[in-house]
Amino acid sequence: MKKIKKYSFLLRMYFCKSLNPDLLQFISNNYLETLKSLVIVDAITDPSLQYHNPLRYEVDPDPLVLLCWKCKYLTELVLVGYEILEINLIAIAKLRDNLKTFYVAMDCVIDLKYGKFKNDNFIEDEDGEDTIVDYGFCSEQSIRKVCKILRCDNWHPLEKDELPMCVYNYQMPYEEAYLEKILTDQYFN
User: Fold this and answer.
1) Mean pLDDT of all residues in 57-66
2) Contact 113, 122 (CB under 8 A)
């Protein structure tokens, strides 16, 4: 019997200005045995992404969490420029506790709070009359949970000073910031 060599699939998407949830679903259905790395980087301040973020709409289940559930060989996940719920960071870590690289930008982490406004004060409740979106915050408790699950001491969402400037200024040339990584992927993988 002839042995078939299994190839690893590495997907890198830099500054595409959109992310289709159907693409993530397609990848999770068709590359579940071979997807090893998924890197999606976009400018956080790009006006085209500011109000149009497909990962925020009611897609159940979250296509990124579903991808992490199905793709058991995934060891690298980088998501910068797209919103991700704080609770999904924990879900991804639980589903892929073998991640060697897990980067998200702190400014892209969101938390949804449900409740209602009363006399200009927000009161949390379960009826969901109003929703507050809290950007750029990840609780210490969530960070500790992800660290524990991934068995690392220093995981955290990346702060602004840990990312290339082109991520925050979409008018800056981004090629220089990621060129080395792109060339390395082409020649050595």
Assistant:
1) 73
2) yes
Longest C-alpha distance within the chain, in Å? 74
Rg (CA), the chain: 18
pLDDT per residue over 137-173, tens digit each? 888 999 999 999 999 888 999 998 888 877 777 677 7
> How many residues appear in the chain?
189
| Distances, alpha carbon 124 to alpha carbons 100, 108, 134, 170, 185, in Å | 37, 23, 13, 36, 47
In whole angstroms, give the CA distance from residue 94 to residue 38.
17
| Paired tokens of 114 | 């449900």
Q: Quick one: pLDDT at residue 91?
A: 93
Q: Which residues pair with 121 in a beta bridge?
A: 118
Q: Is the pLDDT of residue 134 over 80?
A: no
DSSP string covering 23-68: HHHHHHHHSTTTEEEEEEE--TT-HHHHS--GGGS--SS-HHHHHH
Q: Which two tokens stand for residue 24?
A: 């993530």
What's the one-letter identity of residue 139?
Answer: S
- How far is residue 68's CA from residue 32's CA, in Å, rounded to a whole number? 9
